Amino acid sequence: MIVVGITGASGVIYGIKLLEALKELNIESALVISDLAKVVIESETDYTFEDVIKLSNTYFDFHDLTASINSGSFKTDGLVIVPCTMKTLSSIANGYGANTITRVADVSLKEKRPTIIVPRETPLRSIHLQNMLTLSQEGATILPAMPGFYSNPKTIDDQINFVVGKILDSLKIENNLFKRWE
Question: Where is each Flavoprotein domain found (predicted)?
Fold first, then answer.
């Protein structure tokens, strides 16, 4: 099971497309959506909050600190926070597990499970970079939403699929979402 956290940064489509890819690959997913992400989903996409929940196998409430995924004894194959706000990134880097997303990240890191953070902010302040460095030193993969252009993308979906494909690569999940360098 891959846990997917979607926070309120611009770029929620990356999280949605990741859920679609996992579903297509028959990989079980658990989902947590922050309060602000619910607003961003409806403003940036044609999806509703309910549509996104249906893409996952299990949904956990953002405020439920008793959720099973918040325990190290609950086995998962990894966590992806996509997109990840700087507030969420800071909370995780500083061990502040105040909601389900930041708590499951704390558990994922302490259990040495694959933890992928997809920040979606530009430009970056020094503290953003320091928080990313802290998480990288803790074992997280920092995977900014930066599409490659060597595959000569024709559509926005091509660019989104590049980033989602790189997330799946980081989880060691085979995929053909983007043209690889030859």
Answer: 2-171
Q: Is 14 annotated as a binding residue?
A: no
139 is in an annotated binding site: no
Is residue 48's pLDDT more than 90?
Answer: yes
pTM above 0.90, yes or no: yes
Q: Is 10 annotated as a binding residue?
A: yes
Any binding-site annotation on 120? yes
Does the annotation flag 96 for ligand binding?
A: no
Q: Output DSSP code: residue 2.
A: E
**% of residues, the chain, pLDDT over 90:** 95
150 annotated as belonging to a binding site for a ligand: yes
- Main-chain phi, psi angles of 177, to 5 degrees: -80, -15
> Distance from CA of residue 111 to its chain's centroid?
18
Using CB atoms within 10 Å of the CB of residue 128, give its burial: 0 to 12 exposed, 13 to 18 middle, 19+ buried.
middle
The vertex-49 CA angle with 94 and 66, nearest 5°, equals: 45
Does 113 belong to an annotated binding site? no
The pLDDT score that the predictor gives to residue 21 is 98
Kindly list the structural domains of the chain, giving each domain's residue range(s) and its CATH number in brackets, ordered by start.
1-169 (3.40.50.1950)
> Is 86 annotated as belonging to a binding site?
yes
85 annotated to a ligand binding site: yes
DSSP code of residue 180: P
Establish whether 134 is an annotated binding residue.
Answer: no
Predicted confidence at residue 179, as pLDDT, reads 86
Annotated binding residue 9? yes
